[in-house]
Amino acid sequence: MDEYTREHVAWLAHSFGRTDYLPLHPTDLEALAGAGQVVQKYPGTHLFRQGAPADAAYVVERGQVELYRGTDSRRVVGRAQPGSVLGDIAMFRGEPYISSARAVDAVTAFRFDRDKLIPVLLTRPIITLRWLVAGLSQLESTQRRVLGLKHRTVRDQVAELLLDEADGRDEIHLSQAAMAGLLGASRQTVNEALGMLRSEGVIQTGYRTVRITDRSALADTVGR
């Protein structure tokens, strides 16, 4: 294993899945290095596209990835952060990818080829448990968001989304169309909700960017 690969595999050992009670042995790290490769994606480029054969799964190390469906008209269905696993369900099922994965900013990820990963998962139980925990954690997060948004107004849904998607500078780099896709709402209702929040003085809006100006007040309005 060269030094470049060792550095990125070390990130997997410390950041992927449960690290507190599932430590990886050096031989596990060697197995992971042999099953995957580090890929770099520029903003706007794809890790995979909808309908293509799912011959690999990805683990995001750095950057954000937008998941969308459709070709002519994109419908955003999710955003993946560092630590997220992408494409594995379709890969395990032997089916095409059900969505496209596009880098929002500069992305570093591990690409695990199906033919190399499955033998590792069959013989390395700690790696398998790590993979399972990571996938279930994502599912739980999605379910929590769905339940949290149920029976709420679009204004409250947009507020929750902004709090969840804000970066370290309290900025959200999502278009109104992307927000609408994530919430299953219309672009018009999202625009109206942003207008309400702006008039309340808790956000500022710009082109494809929203900045939270009063996080505590925004959180109070949705009961956080």
Provide a short characterization of the protein structure.
The protein has about 220 residues and is an alpha+beta fold. It has nine helices and eleven strands.
Structure explained in plain terms:
The mean pLDDT is 86. The longest helix is centred in the middle third of the chain and has 25 residues, at 125-149. This protein has helices at residues 3-15, 26-35, 88-93, 114-123, 125-149, 154-165, 176-183, 187-199, 215-221, and strands at residues 36-41, 46-48, 56-62, 65-69, 75-80, 85-86, 100-103, 107-113, 171-172, 203-206, 209-212. Helix 2 (26-35) packs antiparallel against helix 4 and helix 6 crosses helix 8 (187-199). Helices cover 46% and strands 22% of the residues. The protein is built from nine helices and eleven strands. By secondary structure, it is of the alpha+beta class. The strands form three sheets. Strands 1-8-3-6 form a four-stranded antiparallel sheet. The N and C termini lie far apart (46 Å).
